[in-house]
Amino acid sequence: MKPLAPKSIAAPFGHYSHGIAGGPVVATSGQLALRPDGTIPEGVGAQADFCFEALRAILAEDGLDFSDVLRFSAFVTRREDMQGYMAARDRACADLEVKPASTLMIVSGFTRPEFLVEVEALALRRDR
């Protein structure tokens, strides 16, 4: 197994990897919208866009991109944030011929109240 830790995103909060490449599978940890300078974007759409950019960076560490993603799993804290998240997901996947599977759950909260969304990905290395 190989840890994936792009320098372009904030370090993990603890002793875990942002992503793990294990054979043909890459699994990411959930990404929150924490910039390397410690700031957090305003609003669920901006946070979700940031989460997707972090996921892109993690996948790129192993030579993958969103066309390799099997599923995105996302978590929001409020029902009214579902549309903002889904719009960001749709932007991230707009150019994909095959859209990944997607799961969205409403949760009671994250490690800090400013966080509104968390997104993780499961990807598969394919022959190209």
From TrEMBL:
Pfam families: Ribonuc_L-PSP
SUPFAM superfamilies given in the database record: YjgF-like
InterPro entries the record matches: RutC-like_sf, YjgF/YER057c/UK114
Classification via CDD domains: YjgF_YER057c_UK114_family
Coiled-coil blocks: none
Protein's UniProt name: Enamine deaminase RidA
Lineage summary: Bacteria, Pseudomonadati, Pseudomonadota, Alphaproteobacteria, Rhodobacterales
